[in-house]
Amino acid sequence: MAQRYVRVKAAEKIYYGLLKIDRTVQVLDAPPWLKGQPTDVILDPNQYQTLAPCAPSKIVAVGKNYANHAAEMGTPVPQEPLLFLKPPTTVIAAEAEIFYPSQSERVDYEGELALVIGDRAYACTPEEAHSKIWGYTIANDVTARDLQRQDGQWTRAKGFDTFCPLGPWVVREINPDARLQTFLNDSPTPVQTATISDMVFTPDALVSYISQVMTLFPGDVILTGTPDGIGALQVGDRVRIEIEGIGFLENTVAARSLKSD
Q1: Is 251 a member of any domain?
Q2: pTM of this prediction?
Q3: 52 to 16, 29, 89, 126, 199: CA distances (angstroms)
Q4: Hey, which bits of 11-92 come out as E strands?
Q5: Cβ atoms within 10 Å of 22's Cβ, excluding its own
């Protein structure tokens, strides 16, 4: 089994660590992409809370990066990567709740492979970009579809708090033909299924392209696009995204009003 790098909270402190088979966490002295090394500190399963595996300064997402998804949206495949940003406040951990905003009447799941950047990337070639990808995790690019269509641009529709479940951990390598699948509730039939090799633009190409626009920093996240099969979520639903070689990311949907907590 590939090593699984996690970010956890214990005794009001946040740690990066290695998740062991017995669910204990060996604490690292720094984030792994900053050359964090194992320490002698071991956290038992009842001592920590699992967080999203990184805390990115920015989340750069890619739209319509699977041809079948572009077709189901009624648009051609973009000639260049179609970029948008999700704020860091969208990030939540596995098992956390996705809050359904009162402003929307149609909120969709979008299962995606996420890249975690390990080194500062600026104006990289695709060949150089490969070494900038530290690892891989799973994301759900939750989208208020009605607001996306209404606004004509995507900031509000993609930017609600909790709209980027991420995790549960990061692995260093992934098979280029790994399968991505999304499941709803208890159905054994996936609503989305594709191999990541079906992407129009590869991870290396995406990192290179984005780095021509903005500097990427260690811990930043790139969402590589979703395959076809997107659909609506309802309050009470449970959505699970699986990627071979990583694991699964599962979250439930809850109602949220406009009032502050």
Answers
A1: yes
A2: 0.95
A3: 11, 18, 12, 28, 25
A4: 13-19, 25-28, 38-43, 49-50, 59-63, 82-86, 91-92
A5: 7
Residue that has been written with the tokens 């990030």 in this structure: 91
Residue 261 within any structural domain of the chain: no
Range of the domain at 181: 59-256
pLDDT of amino acid 259: 59
CA-based nearest residue to 56, from 200, 148, 203, 170: 170
Q: In angstroms, rounded to a whole number, what is the distance separating the alpha carbons of residues 149 and 198?
A: 26
Tokens of 28: 């690292």
Residue 95, both tokens: 């098992």
Q: Which residue has the tokens 């090394």?
A: 37
What integer is the mean pLDDT of 89-110?
A: 97
Phi-psi region of 167 (alpha: psi -120 to 50; beta: other; left: phi over 0): left
Distance CA 81, CA 164 (A): 20
Residue 250 backbone zone (phi > 0: left; psi -120 to 50: alpha; other: beta): beta
Question: 96 and 198 share a domain?
Answer: yes
pLDDT surpassing 90 at residue 247:
yes
